[in-house]
Design brief:
Helices cover about 65% and strands about 0% of the residues. The protein is globular. The protein has about 80 residues and is mainly alpha-helical.
């Protein structure tokens, strides 16, 4: 899947995550939300701040049960 936003390797990680959020909001494709969650899993394992990622994940509200499980796993 190709995102409709142009990014390059020098863009901050937050720009990439924001592009995923915008694409999800425009298309509603559930695979994008899954990709976002997978990226956040990796970032948390790498030491990124839970609350920084949570603030981005809030863009997917309202949350499903699966979303709640993901957030609990991160915390």
């Amino acid at each position: 899947m190709k995102l409709p936003y142009l990014l390059n390797i020098k863009n901050p990680i937050e720009d990439f995550l924001q592009a995923l959020i915008c694409t999800y909001k425009e298309t509603g494709i559930s695979e994008i939300k899954k990709l976002f969650s997978e990226q956040c899993d990796l970032l948390i394992q790498a030491g990124c701040d839970f609350y920084d990622l949570l603030s981005l994940y809030m863009n997917f509200a309202p949350f499903t049960e699966d979303d709640q499980r993901i957030i609990l796993a991160w915390s």
